[in-house]
Amino acid sequence: MLSKELPKIITPTLPGTKANAVLQKRRDYVPKGVASAYPVVIENAKGAMIQDPDGNLFLDWVGGVGVLNVGHAHPRVVETVKKQSEKYLHGMFNIVTHKGYVELAEKLSELVPVRKKDKAKVFFANSGAEVNENAVKIAKTYTGRSNIIVFSGAFHGRTLLTMSMTSKKAYAKGTGPLANGVFRADFPYSYRTPKGIGKENELEYYLEKINKIFEECAPAEEIAALVVEPLQGEGGFVPAPLPWVKAIRKICDEKGILLIADEVQTGFGRTGKMFATEYWKEVDAAPDIITIAKSIADGLPLGAVVADRKIMDSAPVGVIGGTFGGNAVACAAGLEVLKIIKDEKLVERSLEIGIRCTKEFKAWQKKYAVIGDVRGLGAMIGIEFVEDRETKKPATIFVKNLIQTCVKKGLIIESAGVYGNVIRFLAPLVITDEQLTVGLSILEEAIQELS
């Protein structure tokens, strides 16, 4: 049974003969801008395991970059998709209403921890980038303001607007001019706070960066929203400190600005809560709008914007919408994913995995000087590698080599961070204890070899 297997490489080299033929066709017919550095072709996948056409078995610690919290091809999702596909595949929601869209919207309205006076409403699109773009549109229509504030290290997508919102401009190379009205403040990245600023002054330092925008870029009354990831993904798995979240919530309330939380990567049990913004809600700092996608439908294209009905209804007819948004098969999968997370106690499992991995990673931090920092929430953990702990010079080449060393041993991992020097842990939450043990062993062995 593939879902219970352990990693095993049986070909003399990677990729094997069959996988190499597919990768050669990829080079011939797919633009090189769709980058990949992995010698892996997926033939079958179940749980946290991937099998390639040559029979090699890989343990997947990337999970489609946070898409597969309930695992590859969960049998209940597969069965649900089959049943729905036998009824109908699609009916554009602007034309015909289908029950799945409405039922999933109702469930998410109850579950997603947005600040609301009444019931929340839900709008579906196809991806994280789409829902982030639509969240900004909704914030602008509600406030009547034209600008937004985003943060260093942010990743919000690759459409024109979200590419402008995304911090790392390697993702926008040669595509300018970018969208106007997007201003950037420093995200509270404690490990890399400039020298000379003590821990006691960090909060004030980062809040001053926001106030500088009001002074130098656009007055507060022209800012529609602050857009924040509760735990930055591409930025290096950096959690937003709760004192800072409370402070920006206060700024937003005082200035009439909406607080948007991008939970595209953090949602659906990944951080030890169903949604990471539940931590915000516990300190009375719930956001006004939350965007979700990735693990919402176990790999089918779906994303959602969730907010109080008054905010959502501010968007005029025709401003939000799309042909495929809220597709019937994707919504059916989304409803089943919610049931699986509850039935299999995957939120609790996330905490278990997180506790075990964090303990292990912090033990490694004491053993290997190349590990500078370990951080995260639940089972969303980052390990930052540095060449020197004093200077904190990013160990970018080390991480590139670490990825390739691990994949040759059957473990798929991925980098993150502004400098590409962070390894992100995003294993499916259905990973077995034995698979987790073997994966940890492979990763440490690779670190030892390269150190």
TrEMBL record:
Keyword Transferase: yes
Enzyme class, spelled out: transferase
Gene3D superfamilies documented for this protein: Aspartate Aminotransferase, domain 1 (3.90.1150.10), Type I PLP-dependent aspartate aminotransferase-like (Major domain) (3.40.640.10)
Cofactor(s), by name: pyridoxal 5'-phosphate
InterPro entries (UniProt xref): Aminotrans_3, Aminotrans_3_PPA_site, Class-III_PLP-dep_AT, PyrdxlP-dep_Trfase, PyrdxlP-dep_Trfase_major, PyrdxlP-dep_Trfase_small
A Pfam match: Aminotran_3
Keywords: Aminotransferase, Pyridoxal phosphate, Transferase
EC number(s) given by UniProt: 2.6.1.19, 2.6.1.22
Superkingdom assignment: Bacteria
The protein, known as: (S)-3-amino-2-methylpropionate transaminase
Organism: Liquorilactobacillus aquaticus DSM 21051
